User: Fold these one by one.
Assistant:
Number 1:
Amino acid sequence: MQEVPVEKPQSIDLGPRRSVAFIGSECYPFVKTGGLGDVMSALPKSLAKLNMDVKVIIPRYKCIPQKFQEKMEYKGSFYMDLCADGKQYYVGIMEYQEDGVVYDFIDNDEFFSWGNPYTNLIDDIPKFCYFSKAALAALNYLNWTPDIVHCHDWQAALVPLYLRTSFKDTNVGRAGAVLTIHNLRFQGIYDRKTIQYWSDLPGYVFNKDCMTQNWLDANMLKGGITYCNKLTTVSNTYAGEIQTEEYGEGLEEHLRYHSSKILGIVNGIDTDIWNPATDKLLAAQYDSQSVIKNKKANKKALQESLGLEVDDHKIVIGLISRLTNQKGLDLVNDVIPSIMDEHTQVVVLGTGDAMYEDAFRYYENKYKGNFCAYIAYNENVAHNIYAGCDALLVPSRFEPCGLTQLISMRYGSIPIVRETGGLKDTVQPYNLFDNTGNGFTFDRYESGLLYDAINRAKTLYFENRKYWDEMVVRDMNKDVSWQQSAKQYKDMYVELTPKY
Ligand code: ADP
Ligand code: GLC
């Protein structure tokens, strides 16, 4: 019998195997208040596909839905020293596995019995001192020694300090420490005595080059920046911006001092969750071939469900955001009266500062049938807005990366953004002359410039739909996945642990 040549499957080089423990305060779908939750979910999954052992450690908050709580498996418990009170604190470990990632939830009713992950600094400082220490103690307890411990934002910023002090002679103390800044505005600054009491870190870290903020306060993020081996932030532009006075939030000098260890890696999105071709929440699914036809059905469904006039000819401009000073809402407030006309509808989804919530409610009343203020946090409505709107506003004052512009491109909605941080790195400005680009952009933080960008968008939408539609297709085909960036993270981990 003649032998049939068997074609060998091409092996893709995924690089050397490494292990990493992610430590942070939120992770979708368990708990999410913003983009940190998305990144803590999607990046580990992408790393697992790149020959990495990945563990994610987050608190077991009471607000984690019951359907996940039920599936968690008890992995053990122990008692741990925490602060100067000499008391032993309970640490329970509950485990859940999915998509090649192991999730460990730190269980302690005293700290995590609130509904929300964040309450106020008086409670959050002890809570996250406890969490950072308990996460490392749990790794030792489980005898799982990662090559890298990767902690996120101020809530886990004490991890590098604990690693090199209380844990330095333990197994986990051998790991490299990476700290990612998702938002420099939040630093965990509080009365020095309180932080010293709860963290029980040695007195020598409370000096001006490490934890000390001023004569009264300590700064947890500043301490983490000092002690980590590598400091990353979520876009290249933001990595540069945070070293300037305008964006440095008071830490610019400290960051410039540590600049040799700063690296900007742009975020991606989970393209399985954010996929209009399979998204069950939509009125009609679509891909880049069917978008022009099928997006209409989503627009109609959105207008109907939000009580807007159902009219395909109007441009629907969306905004999905935490309603805070970061997000450029003052500019939006300023321009609403000038952009609202018989051809325009605006949909805002968000919660936050009362003054923005009230302003948007006022506009809803003023422009009945054409303005919707959906004051809530609602994932399902967010999916429908991404799919049903024509354009999405992200005019942020500062934006470390921003995910809503990435999701909107994936859903064929054109982003209108300010050129800052990750918005600058991910949205190439539309160029009318050669018909290239992904969205409409403006540079200085001025309402006149946002107004102009929205008008440029409206002009193209109403006067040159062919070019608009081409941009929709171009945006849907743009790679906004984690693939490239996860590789960059992996390269960094390997560089930090060259021992194998
Ligand atoms: P940030 O982390 O600063 O809030 P990002 O753009 O990085 O901003 O991430 C925001 C994430 O939160 C996105 O996934 C967005 O869809 C989601 N989001 C923001 N506000 C809401 C809301 N009101 N309802 C549902 N999802 C929201
Ligand atoms: C922060 C930033 C946002 C970023 C997100 C995830 O919340 O505000 O720009 O996309 O973290 O990294």
Number 2:
Amino acid sequence: MKIDIVSVFPEYFKALDVGLFGKAIERGLLDVSAHDLRDWTHDVHHSVDDTPVGGGAGMVMKPEVWAECLDDLLGLEPVEMADDGSETPDPPEADLSKPVLIFPNPSAPLFTQRDATELSRAGHLVFGCGRYEGYDARIPRYYRAQGVDVREYSIGDYVLNGGEVAVSVMLEAITRLMPGFMGNPDSIVEESYTGSNALLEHYQYTKPAVWRGMGVPDVLTSGDHGKVDRFRRDEAIAHTDRLRPDLIERLDCKALNKADRKTLMALGWEVSGPHPRKRAD
Ligand code: ADE
């Protein structure tokens, strides 16, 4: 996978050289370049931002500099548009053999494991890190109109100083799902948020079986794999019920087995409809 990252702090991405991500670069699974947006400026101050049209606090990243940079990375020629901003063009069909342009943005839909899974199959990702009060809204609009698959994602309901941290988060979530990235691919299969029956994960323990007087659940040392699996599944359901009931509401009842239903019913969920619903009492 080819990955281009554009930022006014490209040195931030040196941190990607460590751990499994660094190894994937070494092995040639990832080809990562972090670019300095200021390399595409022409003025003495290398300015990338300007005051907001219509007034207001802060600065907005200029479209001209971004477009020169993105045209280069995407191999596109500049096009003069007849667009007064009054219509929202339909997003192009997702085609992961073409580059995907991704802008982190706190005012965008949440980035989820589903997005990470989809993007792990892409051949070329281009990330644009905004700073200040964000980037000119015509940038994603322009590239969508050129047929580019442009995504804007928030990584959570909080505001960061810029998109760099958000890009690191997305990159880690995406690349670890690529075939050949993880030493043990089984470790991704059981994780929280994976698959249509996403639940939080059960607790994990390692040795010693007793530590500072604290034991582990007996069933885990019983050697009975069927019982261990059921115990973990029930624990996952119970954690999700307690911490993220919104995930239970999204489960597909048809994909639940009899034991799952029993556990959910004991926790106060109705499982007769398409998705579980908490009983009113
Ligand atoms: N830029 C600033 N805050 C952000 C967030 N929460 N998600 C993505 N990009 C951001």
